[in-house]
Amino acid sequence: MLAEQNRTEQNRTEQNRTEQNRTEQNRTESHCEMCLDAESIVTHRNNIPQTMGEIASVGSSCKHTSSKPRNDLRVKSLKSRLTVHCQQAFTLAEVLITLGIIGILAAMTIPNLLQSSQEGQLVAGLLKFNSTLQQAVQMWKVDIDCYSDAYTCLAQQGLADEVSSNFDQIGKLMKISQKAAGATNANWLPEKTLDYDGISITWHNYRTNGGTCKYLLQDGMIFSVDVDPAGFMILVDVNGPKPPNRIGKDTFHFTIGYNSQKDISYYTRSPEPYVCSLSEICDSNNFDPTKSNGASPTSYVIINNKLPDFKSLSKTVAGFRP
Predict the structure, then answer these.
(1) What is the pLDDT of residues 123-141, one digit of tens each?
(2) Torsion angles phi and psi, residue 293, rounded to 5
(3) Which strands, in side-by-side order, build the sheet including 251-257?
């Protein structure tokens, strides 16, 4: 009976010792895992290569535990992740080469993009003015109760020559901001306007001989009107006084009347250098000044939604600037 009690007591003692050893082992393993987790956080946050040695020292401090294989696997896994991270990084030379390539591509493409954007704005401006003028002429014909062509409507009114108020009946329908008559130094007018060739100054110069009257629209466009009893000859600059101030680029011809077949035509009334006029047979889709009695830049842009190719003209037409 006494021997049996002794064996029972020994078993209980051994069980308690075993339980205590397991508890201590779990605490040690938990401590090692916390060490490794802390080291991995520091490593990734600071990106210090010497951390590998620290991780190794942490692993050696836990050698006395039975979890060494598990900790070694954690160290190896972390080492492999750091190795991959280092292999994926770019060297300074690679970064500089990449930046150089980007700079070269930007230098090649940005000027073309800017030019294309500017040309698109000029084309859009011409299309907008054409629409505004067409609507104004139609409303004017309704106001004067005339349902024939513009030439006939003007003839019925018996208008005098070179009287600026003759156009006011149409101008009041176009959101005009300012008006000037005759020679003027208004700061909203360009100092000079170039012909289609980009060299000579057109006789339509807004400030000196730009027609009977000049108008500034609320959107910044400007145009002059040469008033005749049979019609109005208009020259519009779709971006105001800003350059290039050249016929065919930002400056374009319109006429109201003169031609009994159309209310509005896209030509000058009388012959001018390089461009076709109403008195000639014109090709509305031609931008070459050496063909078809001269270029038709206004109608060309309206038809094709793009500016004439001045660069190609400068290569084929003597004395022509791009």
Answers:
(1) 999 999 999 999 999 999 9
(2) 60, 20
(3) 176-181, 213-217, 222-228, 231-237, 251-257, 264-265
